[in-house]
Amino acid sequence: MAGNGSTRPTGVTVLAVLGFLAGAFGVLGGLGALGVGGFIAAMAGPIGIVAMIAGLFILAIAIVQLVVAYGYWTLATWAWRYGIVIAALSVLFALLGFLGSGNFANLAWSVVINGLIIWYLNKAEVRTAFAAPATGFPIVGNSLDRYIPKN
After folding, report:
1. Tell me: the pLDDT tens digits for 41-59?
2. pLDDT score recorded for residue 1
3. Which of 17, 22, 29, 117 is the most exposed place for a label (fewest CB within 10 A)?
4. Half-sphere exposure of 124 (CA within 13 A, CB side)
5. How many whole angstroms separate alpha carbon 85 and alpha carbon 39?
6. What are the residue ranges of helices labelled H in 1-151?
7. Is-contact 126 120, C-beta < 8 A?
8. Residues near 1 by Cβ (< 8 Å), separated by ≥ 6?
9. What pLDDT, on the 0 to 100 scale, is given for residue 90?
């Protein structure tokens, strides 16, 4: 389902272009890891298999990035929802990475960038462009509103 036919906000265009670029480089990186992993697997065994699995994971993420970027470009309502969910998951994965490595800079950048994406996607004019609900959570819409106390 496409948005309401309004013009695409500039920020959404930027997100779409960046998503296309990240997805394209991710596909190249994933294919490269698959190729190198296959070569190493033929020569050394288990290490190459791990590289091939990493390549498949990178390739899967890149495909998701390309699909969401296409959704941003076409103002598909599902892209608005998935964009918010993906940004929130990115913060969670950065937190898990921080707990494993202690690299605060990666965590800080992830929180700032993905926080800005979530904030931007929730602006009224962006929600309108995507024909998203005016309020509510991205996945369930307004169905949880009855549980949120009103002042």
Report:
1. 777 777 778 888 888 998 9
2. 46
3. 17
4. 0
5. 36
6. 10-44, 46-74, 77-101, 104-121, 124-129
7. yes
8. 76, 77, 78, 131
9. 87
- Residue closest to 75 by CA, chosen among 36, 34, 116, 126: 126
- Between CA 23 and CA 64 the distance in angstroms is 8
Which segments of the chain have a pLDDT < 70? Answer: 1-6, 136-151
CB 107 within 8 A of CB 98: yes
- C-alpha 107/C-alpha 94 separation (Å) is 5
Look up the pTM and report it.
Answer: 0.77
Distance of CA 56 to the CA centre of its chain: 17
- pLDDT at res. 23: 93
Query: What is the C-alpha to C-alpha distance for residues 90 and 109, in angstroms, rounded to an integer?
Result: 11
- Cβ neighbors of 53 (< 8 A, separation 6 or more) are 37
